[in-house]
Amino acid sequence: MFIQDNISLKPYNTFGIDVIAKHFVSVSSINELKSVLSLKKYPNKLILGGGSNMLLTKNQDALVIHLNIKGIDIISENEDNVLIKAYAGENWHEFVLWCLNKGYGGIENLSLIPGNVGTAPIQNIGAYGVELKDVFVSCEALSVANKTLKTFSKEDCNFGYRNSIFKQQSKGKYVITSVTFRLTKKNHELHINYGAIASQLETLNVNTPTIKDISRAVIAIRESKLPNPKEIGNSGSFFKNPIISKSHYNKLLKSFDLIPCYPVSEDEIKVPAGWLIEKAGFKGKRFNDYGVHNKQALVLVNYGNAKGEDILKLSRLIQKTIKRLFNITLEAEVNIL
Ligand code: EPU
Asked: pTM to 2 decimals?
C-alpha cells in the first residue's frame, strides 16, 4: 500500500475540480481496503469511486481512498439468464460494453453513464426508462466499523428514485466492493418506449432493435445533450427532478402552460428540473469558467479552472430562483464535499 501526501484530485473527479487530498491511497483488493480502513493514523477517511457524482468545494483534510478493485466473474448461468458479479472499481460504461459484447441484455439503456460499478447502487443510477434496481440482485459491502463483508439483497437496499439505503441510514457506514446483476441471454426485455430512444432508432433506420442498437441510440442521445466530462467538467444531472403535488402542478399550469411531467402516484407528479432551470433563464449561462450547459440545463459545467465553491454558489442561486418562481425546492443530486 502506497500512501501519498498532497495529491491533486483533479483527475479523480469528473467535474475536474482541482483540490488537494492531504493523503491519498489507491486500493486494488478487499484485503488492502480492510487494512487501509484500519489505519488509526488517519482518522478522517473519504472513499472515492468514479468521482462522477461529487462536487469538491475544498481541500480534503483526509485520507482519500481510491477504490480500484477490479474484476468481472460469471457466478452462474442457464439458457436464459446469467448472474454476473462485477467489482467496485470497474468503470460502469466499460462493464456495459463487456456485457453487450457477450450478448447479455438489461443494462443497454444505461450506456455511457459516468462512474464505476461500485457507486451505481448508491444513487440507483437510471436513464431512458431503466434503473439499476431492475437488474440488481445483491451487492457486497465492507462495514467501516468492523471490517466485515455484508451482503445486501435488493430489498435491503431500499431503492428509490436516485436513492438507496447507502444514501440514507447506511450512509458512510459501508463501502460497496462488488455488485451482482441478473442479465438476460435471450428474449431480452427491450425498453424503447422512452420518446427519445424511439426517434433515435428511427434516425438510425433500425426497425427491430438489438440490445447493441439500443446502446448505440442511447450513446447518440447522451452525446447530443450531455457534455463529455473529458472535454467539459460536469457531474451529469446536478439536481434531482422534483416531485410535487398535483394541486401544485395545476396551480403552476395557470401561469406556465405545457410543463412536461411524469406521473409518480395518484396525487404526485415529477417535473423535469431541466425545464424549470431553462424557464428561469439559466440555460447556457456562463460565468467565467463555470456555468449551465447549453443543451441540458440540469447539468452544471466547469469550462476549465472553476472552483467548487463557485459552482456551489451558482447551484444555490438556481435553487433560490426556482423556489421564488415556482415555489419548488430543488435538491442536489450530487454529493457536496
Ligand atoms: N428539458 C428542458 N430543458 C432542458 C432540459 C430538459 O426543457 O434544458 C425538458 C425536456 O425537453 C424534456 C424533459 O425536460 O421534456 C426531460 O429531459 P431529459 O429527457 O433530458 O431528462 P431529465 O429528466 O432532464 C433524467 C435524468 C438523467 C437521464 C435522463 C434520461 C435525473 C435527475 N436525470 O434527466 O440522468 O439521463 O433523465 O433518462 O433524473 C444523471 O442522473 O446524471 C442523468 C444525466
From this structure: 0.95
Under the banding of pLDDT at 50, 70 and 90, the label for residue 193 is confident
| Distance of CA 274 from the midpoint of ligand 1 (Å) | 6
Is 162 labeled as catalytic in the residue annotation? yes
Mean pLDDT of 203-214: 94
298 CA distance to ligand 1 centroid (A)? 7
Q: How many beta carbons lie within 10 A of that of residue 203, not counting itself?
A: 10
Delineate the domains of the chain, giving CATH numbers in brackets: 4-67 (3.30.43.10), 72-225 (3.30.465.10), 233-336 (3.90.78.10)
- The catalytic residue among 90, 108, 131, 333 is 333
Mutate to test the pocket of ligand 1, among 92, 235, 298, 299 (most ligand atoms within 8 A of CB): 298
